[in-house]
Amino acid sequence: MNNINSKAMPAPPNIIHIILAGFDSITNHLILILFPMLLDLLLWFGPRLSIKNLVKSMLNTMAKMPGANSPEMIKLMEINQTIWESMGEHFNLISVLRTYPVGIPSLMVSIQPINNPLNTTASIQINSIQAVAGLWIILTVFGLSLGAFYFWSVAQAAVVGEISWSKGILKWPWLALQVCLLALLWLAILVAMSVPGSCILTVLAAGGESFARIGLLIILGIIMWLLFPLIFSSHGIFVFQRTMWESVKQSVRMTRYTFPSTALFFFIILMLGEGLDMLWRIPGETSWLTMIGLLGHGFVASGILASTFIYYRDATSWVDQVVQRIKLSSMA
Question: Rounded to whole angstroms, how far apart are CA atoms 286 and 40?
């Protein structure tokens, strides 16, 4: 009886076929690549919300603090000043529209351009921390909402094979709410993990730089291990229209049963996406050839996302069948 049941077990999802199916679905709905392309064009040619002056003001304030004139602090300030000034010059607050765990993918977020081929970039300085915090929250909520609509559209193209835009608009408020709740859950988990992690790093840093680096790698590995079951936490919202919490529970259940296959799947798509992104970034922010990179990135990122929805659907179905067969086998 056990041999019969084992032979009757369904085959697990085929990763290569799923990835190809994801790209095929985007080929049939090329309009979807406009989402990442339009965001990248905004970050490339649109006005920049800069925090350059705010960063300089904060550095000047730190330089006037008691004890800042000691040789150790002066050396540390010089190192940090270079890093922070570079970040302040390149960082565009509008890039916060690229949200996680749900959001529209962007190539320009990793580039943070300060120039473009037209040399027409306008910069708007944000000079207060309160304004930065307020804009950060507004842009994050807006980015999550746009990301929810993008994810739903890609999921429909991948799983259903067609997109009903009117249906998507009607579902948009509910989808945005679930996505915002999911983002708050991820934020709470990350904060809860970072507190003990920072304490451990502080203790290890006392033993030297080498101990601190090893500790950082170990802590990052533990965080990735703990967060991996949540990798599909958003997919149930878009594929099966489940609530945020039901989607999270289904993600944990599915990854627990399919860990080797899921890990291999994400390794492949990560190498594919990051490898091609290196190619798209080669021309540089002042070259019109980067436009080809934006087109390629939009297609590849959308195709990869579509393949994750197909994998989630097939893997969930496979887990349900396997669990059902196991239950029937135990009752025989």
Answer: 14
Structure token digits, residue 131:
């304004």
Q: Which residues contact 102 (CB under 8 A, 6 or more apart)?
A: 144, 147, 148, 151, 179, 182, 183, 234
- Strands 48-50 and 123-125, by their bridges, are parallel
Of 143, 145, 154, 156, nearest in space to 178 by CA: 145
Residues 98 and 39: their CA atoms lie apart, in Å, by 8
What is the token pair recorded at 41?
A: 């064009």
146: tokens are 């746009």
Are 157 and 28 within 8 A, CB to CB? Answer: yes
Could you tell me if 108 and 43 are in contact, meaning their C-beta atoms sit under 8 angstroms apart?
yes
Which two tokens mark 78?
């010089």
3-state secondary structure of 198: helix
pTM of the model: 0.89
Per-residue tokens: 319: 């887990």
Q: Which residues of 112-137 are buried (b: 16+ CB within 10 A; e: fewer)?
A: bbbebeeeebeeeebeeeeebeebee
- Summarised one tens digit per residue, pLDDT across range 201-213 is 666 666 666 666 7
Eight-state DSSP code of residue 282: S
Task: Tell me which long-range contacts 318-323 makes (C-beta under 8 A, separation of at least 24).
Answer: 318/10, 318/12, 318/13, 318/258, 319/253, 319/254, 319/257, 319/258, 321/9, 321/10, 322/9, 322/10, 322/257, 323/257
pLDDT tens for each residue of 156-183 = 999 999 999 999 999 999 999 999 999 9
Torsion angle of alpha carbons 102, 106, 110, 112, nearest 10°? -120
Give one word for 183, left, alpha or beta, with left for phi > 0 and alpha for psi -120 to 50: alpha
The answer to whether the Cα torsion of 133, 139, 140, 141 is positive or negative is positive
